[in-house]
UniProtKB/TrEMBL annotation:
Histone methyltransferase that dimethylates histone H3 at 'Arg-17', forming asymmetric dimethylarginine (H3R17me2a), leading to activate transcription via chromatin remodeling. Maternal factor involved in epigenetic chromatin reprogramming of the paternal genome in the zygote: mediates H3R17me2a, promoting histone H3.3 incorporation in the male pronucleus, leading to TET3 recruitment and subsequent DNA demethylation. Its main location: cytoplasm. It is found in: Cytoplasm; Nucleus. Gene3D superfamilies: Vaccinia Virus protein VP39 (3.40.50.150). It catalyses: L-arginyl-[protein] + 2 S-adenosyl-L-methionine = N(omega),N(omega)-dimethyl-L-arginyl-[protein] + 2 S-adenosyl-L-homocysteine + 2 H(+). It comes from Chloropsis cyanopogon. InterPro entries: Methyltransf_16 (IPR019410), SAM-dependent_MTases_sf (IPR029063). GO terms for molecular function: protein-arginine omega-N asymmetric methyltransferase activity. SUPFAM superfamilies: S-adenosyl-L-methionine-dependent methyltransferases (SSF53335). GO terms for biological process: chromatin organization; methylation; regulation of gene expression. It comes from the Eukaryota. This is Histone-arginine methyltransferase METTL23.
Length: 198
């Protein structure tokens, strides 16, 4: 749905991340996936349709976004996918009681620099509980001054850049959309940095 006035906008980063999920569809059945900041939930919905056990989440302070998650599930015949209110940087009963996770998805969550540390605090918490999990994330380059490198170091996280051409997302049109070609989208996989001696 390409209509921002209803809060159901499919941002270019979501299309690119969904393409990555699709490219890895054979490894997804049985995987436990959490999408954060899900909104319309395109990557999470694709993961669920590919056989992953998905939980969708967005801020507990944004009920319209949680409703978008639920609506996307219903439209895609996924009525049993749980939707949780998880606010970045906040330890809540929902966060503490999450089942084990293999993959965390987040498209365009690195939008506002004031949220970067809260996002990475939450990601660190989840990866500490699930040391073998990965955070698959896409982001739009909006400013050369914005960086999460220092925060990754602070939270003992590492990132690996994933070239878009490696999963067919460097095309001018993607999923019948011309949007990804008109924006600078990057993808990375974030995981726990290994401690010395491990």
């Amino acid at each position: 749905v390409l209509d921002s006035q209803y809060g159901t906008y499919v941002w270019p980063c979501a299309v690119v991340l969904a393409q990555y999920v699709w490219a890895h569809r054979r490894s997804l059945p049985g995987q436990r996936v959490l999408e954060i900041g899900a909104g319309v939930s395109l990557p999470g919905v694709v993961a669920a349709r590919c056989g992953a056990q998905v939980i969708l989440s967005d801020s507990e302070e944004l009920p319209q976004c949680l409703q978008s998650c639920r609506s996307s599930c219903l439209m895609n015949r996924l009525p049993h996918v749980p939707v949780l209110g998880l606010t970045w940087g906040r330890v809540s009963p929902e966060l503490l009681s999450l089942a084990p996770i293999d993959i965390i998805l987040g498209s365009d969550v690195f939008f506002d620099p004031k949220d970067f540390e809260d996002i990475l605090t939450t990601i660190y918490f989840l990866l500490e509980k699930n040391p073998h999990a990965q955070f698959w994330t896409t982001y739009q380059v909006r400013s050369a001054d914005w960086s999460i490198e220092a925060l990754l170091y602070k939270w003992n996280l590492k990132s690996v850049h994933v070239p878009l051409h490696s999963f067919g997302a460097d095309k001018e049109h993607l999923a019948s959309s011309s949007m990804p070609g008109r924006h600078t989208i990057e993808m990375m996989i974030i995981s726990l940095a290994q401690s010395e001696g491990t």
